[in-house]
Amino acid sequence: MVRPIHIFAALVVFSAVPLGVTAPPTMQAIAHEGADDDDYAAGEPGDAKKPFRVLEVTISEKDGAMTFSPPEVDVKLGEQIKFVIRNAGALKHEFHLASVQQNASHLIEMRKNPEMVHDDPNVQTIEPGKEAEMLWRFSKPGEFEFACLIPGHYEAGMHGKVVVK
Ligand SMILES: [Cu+2]
Predict the structure, then answer these.
(1) Spacing, Cα 145 to ligand 1 middle (Å)
(2) pLDDT for 83 beyond 70
(3) Which of 21, 41, 46, 54 has the smallest number of Cβ neighbours within 10 A?
(4) 150 C-alpha vs ligand 1 centroid, how far in Å?
C-alpha cells in the first residue's frame, strides 16, 4: 500500500515544476525548440468575439497516403478562420499552422523527439475519430502551411497550403 503512494507523490512533485521558468534546459529544448513563443509566421491566435469563417478540414488515410482535405485554402488578409479539423483516420494526427520553413525545422526536431508534447495555439493534436478546432487570424500576407509533423506523416502527404492575400 505504501509504495504506490510514494510513486504517485513523486509524479505530482515532478509535474508541478513550472515549465519555462525553472525547468532544466533539456526540458525547454524538447518543448520549444524550432518554434517562436509569440511570433507566429502565419498570423496570430484569433479572437472569438470577432467574426470568423468556419472551414472544415478532414484528415484521411488510404492506400498508404495521409491527406488533409481540402489541400489548399484561400484566405483574405485580416480574415479570421475557425478550422474544424476532423480526423477520419485510425491514427493520431497533428495540425501545425506555420511557415513551410518553420514546419521543416520542426519536422527535424520531431524525428529526434517523436513523443514531443505541443502546447501552442498554432498546433492541434487530433485523436482518431475526433475533432479539434483552431481559431486563427491571418494578419500577414503570403503562403503558409498546415502540416502533420509526426514522423512519416508529412512524407506520406500530410501538408496543405494557405494562401493569404
Ligand atoms: Cu499525421
Answers:
(1) 14
(2) yes
(3) 21
(4) 6
> For residue 55, how far is its CA from the centre of ligand 1 (angstroms)?
19
Q: Above 50 in pLDDT, residue 48? A: yes
Q: What is the pLDDT of residues 137-155, one digit of tens each?
A: 999 999 999 999 999 999 9
Q: Which CATH number fits domain 33-164: 2.60.40.420, 3.30.70.1060, 2.60.200.40, 3.10.129.10?
A: 2.60.40.420
Q: What is the SS3 assignment for the chain?
A: CHHHHHHHHHHHHHHCCCCCCCCCHHHHHHHHCCCCCCCECCEEECCCCCCCEEEEEEEEEECCEEEEECCEEEECCCCEEEEEEEECCCCCEEEEEECHHHHHHHHHHHHHCCCCCCCCCCEEEECCCCEEEEEEECCCCEEEEEECCCCCCCCCCCEEEEEEC
CA of 20 to the centre of ligand 1 (A): 27
Distance from the alpha carbon of residue 101 to the mean position of ligand 1, in angstroms:
18
Instruction: Give the residue extent of every domain in the chain.
Output: 1-31, 33-164
Q: How far is the CA of 13 from the centre of ligand 1 (A)?
A: 33
